[in-house]
Structure formats: structure tokens, C-alpha cells
């Protein structure tokens, strides 16, 4: 792809400048900032940051409500619409939106009109939409390249127009999340309570699904329909390990996600790895690092409490 060519040229230029410059050690700050002297790297960074903000706001509710499977299904469910728009030169956002609407409607219909549970309906449409998307792309010609672009994105190919779309999508996500904060919060704990309080849980649920779909559709160019799921789930799940308050979870999730975007782009630049996959992999790895640290801290705290309890018991017996 042409952006891999641009990255290779950028790295060669960077290495050439480092080798012909004065003999001095490259500082850590220069290692971090030098790659972003190139426009395509800055655009990738901005796009990643915007995607993290939107996905963290939505992903917090996904994690709290246990909707990870639905989020994953939606990430695949938009594929047929995007594929058709991609092949016929239509608007990718419109194609993805139509496909997401079909997915949400199908899940709702299958759950309401049959004895199937939500998970079964989601699983059926998950496989069906993914198969339809791959089949459509395979008819378009450049099968492997087109499928890779849609599924894994092309962060280094983000344009100014893509950034404008992300700004609009992120702003809308923030506004809707703020306006519907109370219905979303109550719905996360009890659908029945939300209904008693007159918060219209069915409408709130559909609004949440629409937000998830919107984030996926607007950011597929950045991380792809497949890897956007990692952004929606991994940073919020990591934040849930260290906080229980929703606003704090959102803030921590955004901070973790932005850090991983920066780290992933730097690793991708210096080691020539796929940018989107590197970023997504780091966000998932961070979850397990934080989980291991928390488990270690909890274990030490339990041992300390047990030791204190033994010491107290021994002291009481002696007394």
C-alpha cells in the first residue's frame, strides 16, 4: 500500500538524518517526537485520539452492561454495507449505517419473535453478516487488499476529511452520552428500575446501540471494523479494574487508550508493524498487565491482613 511506502521513505530519511548529523546520542524525547514530523503520522495520531475518546465513552457502557458480544457483532455487522459502498463507489458511512440498522433490527426481531435468546440471535446475525460482507468483497476484484483495508483499517492513510468526520462523530457521541447519562446509568444496573423511573429503557437501549454503531462506522478507517472492537472494550475494561465510578472510568479509559495509540504508532514506525493491529494489541496487553498488578497488590494486602490478624490473636492470648 502507498502509505507503507511513505512510512519506509520517512524512516529512511530519519535514519539518514541521524547518521549524517553531529555525533550525539538521540534522546528519548527525539525518539518520540521525530516520527510525528511527518504529516501522515500526525493524522494517524489525531485520528487515534479522537477514536479513543468516542470509543471510551461508549465502551464504558458496553463493559458495564456486559454487551461485549453485541459490540463485536456490530463491528462485523457493518461489513456488508461498507463493502457494497466500497465496491460501487458510494458513501462508506451511509453504507455502514444501513448495514448496522439491519443488524440491530434483525437482532431485535429474532429475539422478540422467536424463542431464541439475545445471544443466539446475535450469534446468527454475526456469522451471517460477516459471511455476506466477505462474499460481497470477493466479487469486487482486489479481494485481499479490500478486505484488509476494511477489517484492519489504514491509520497511516487517514485524510483531513476523515479527521473532520471523526471530530463530528466524537462530538455527537459526547453530547448524546451527556444527555442520556442518567438513562444509560440506571439501565446498566436494572432495566426494571429504569422503566419504573420512566426513563424509557427500550429507547435508551436502541440509542446505546446506535452510538456503538456510530463509533464503529466513523472509526473503521482508523482501526478497521475488526479491531475497533478492541478500542471499545479493552481500555474501558482496564479502567474498570481501577475504578467503580463511571466518570472516572471514562477518564481513565481515555488516558489509557491515548497512551496506547501513541505507543502503538511509535512501535509501528520503528519496527514496521501494522499500525492498527499494534495499537489494538497493546490495549489488550495493558489490560492483562493492570490485572496482574492488581492481583499482586490484592494478594499482598490479604497476606498483610492475615499477618495482622495472627499478631492480634497472639497478643490477645498472651494478655
Major beta sheet, specifics?
none
> Number of folding domains?
1
- What is the β-strand count? 0
> What is the CATH top level name?
Mainly Alpha
Radius of gyration: 23 Å
DSSP helical segment count: 14
Which architecture name does CATH use?
Orthogonal Bundle
The global form is globular
User: Which structural class is indicated by helix and strand composition?
Assistant: mainly alpha
Quick structural overview:
The chain has 319 residues and is mostly helical.
Task: Please provide a written account of the structure.
- It is globular, with a radius of gyration of 23 Å.
- It has one domain (2-9, 38-318): ABC transporter involved in vitamin B12 uptake, BtuC (Orthogonal Bundle).
- It has helices at 2-20, 28-33, 39-65, 68-77, 79-88, 92-113, 118-138, 143-152, 160-179, 181-189, 191-196, 201-240, 246-271, 275-318.
- The chain is mainly alpha-helical and 319 residues long.
- The mean pLDDT is 82.
- It is built from 14 helices and no strands.
Task: Summarize the topology.
Blueprint: H1 2-20, H2 28-33, H3 39-65, H4 68-77, H5 79-88, H6 92-113, H7 118-138, H8 143-152, H9 160-179, H10 181-189, H11 191-196, H12 201-240, H13 246-271, H14 275-318
Spell out the key features of this protein.
single chain, mainly alpha, 319 residues, ABC transporter involved in vitamin B12 uptake, BtuC, 14 helices
